[in-house]
Amino acid sequence: CSSATFYWELGLPYHTYPYVLHDISNKHPPVYDIIKIDAIGSVLSIWSHYCLRVSNNGSACISCKNMVNTLKKIMDHAGWHSFGLQCSTLSHLQLCQKLDNTGKLCEQERFQAIHKATWKKLLVIVGTQDVPALHQIFRNANSFRWSIEKTLEMTQKAIAGLYHAQNFSELEIDLANVIYDL
What we know:
Blueprint lengths: L3 E4 L5 H4 L15 E7 L4 E6 L13 H18 L12 H37 L5 H10 L4 H13 L9 H12 L1
Antiparallel strand pairs: 1-3, 2-3
Helix pairs in contact: 3-5, 4-5
């Protein structure tokens, strides 16, 4: 038997093939061995564990040819995104994707925790101190797309007298003039 060949469509087999399947700790290892890898052509040469090592016409025996269907299933699995898949069946590429996604989730949680603390600070300041033109500070925050950190900073500056909100509406200006005239 000359071994069966299989074209690995996912790119470089060293990066996209789930070699962890062949680990001795795997409870259900594949019933074939990879005997040669053509990285340039992305071709795997395999022998079935049931290979007869004999073939009539010099090609692969029937046991090795039947492993092609198994490899198609493994290739389909290796082409999926890593989300929700067990680490024990992932390729190097999928493991890298999973690590990257986990890092992004940790960063989002850290970012949300920081924002939550900032919102709490702002709520304490607004609830315990008189903030001049507070409604205008929030309007400016919305108009100029300030972050919550910038909004907190400007609120603290307004309390200290270092920031005087502007961009009042005509109604607010008219109301201030009426009160001034009285």
